[in-house]
Amino acid sequence: MECCLGQGELIRVDGGKEGVTLRCSSGTVWLTCGNGVDYLLHAGKSFAVAANQVAVVEALHAAECTLVKPLSKLSPVQRPAIRLAAC
C-alpha cells in the first residue's frame, strides 16, 4: 500500500500478526513504536514494524511511503500491507 503524507500528517501503522515494513520513497518521516527510541527515515530507508507492534509515523516534510508485509515466513516476496489507520 502506498501512502502520501503532507508535512505534519500522522498515520498509525499496525504490524499485525506477521509484521510490516515501512519504506520511505521520498521525503522524511519520524517514527516511534513505544520502545523509547525515535527513528528518522529518509528516502530509500526502511523500518520493520514487528508483529503485534504499533508505530506512529509523522511526515517532517511531504513524504511518500510504502507498506509491505511478507507473504509467508519462508518467502522473501512481499505483498502490499492493509493495516494502515489514520490517527
Count of separate DSSP helical elements = 0
Structural class: mainly beta
Count of extended strands:
10
Report the CATH C-level class: Mainly Beta
Q: What separation lies between the terminal Cα atoms? A: 17 Å
Poorly predicted sequence stretches spanning 5 or more consecutive residues:
79-84
Outline, from the CA principal axes? Answer: globular
Count of domain modules: 1
Relevant CATH superfamily: Jelly Rolls
Largest sheet: 5 strands, antiparallel
Helix proportion of residues, in percent? under 10%
Order of helix and strand elements from N to C terminus: EEEEEEEEEE
CATH architecture: Sandwich
The overall average pLDDT, rounded, is 84
Strand content: over 45%
Radius of gyration: 12 Å
The CATH topology is given as: Jelly Rolls
Walk me through what this model shows.
The protein has strands at 2-5, 10-14, 20-26, 28-32, 38-42, 46-49, 54-59, 63-72, 75-80, 84-86. By secondary structure, the chain is an all-beta fold. It has a single domain (2-72), classed as Jelly Rolls (Sandwich), CATH 2.60.120.10. The strands form two sheets. Strands 1, 3, 6, 8 and 9 form a five-stranded antiparallel sheet that branches. Strands 5-4-7-2-10 form a five-stranded antiparallel sheet, with no helix packed on it. The two termini are 17 Å apart.
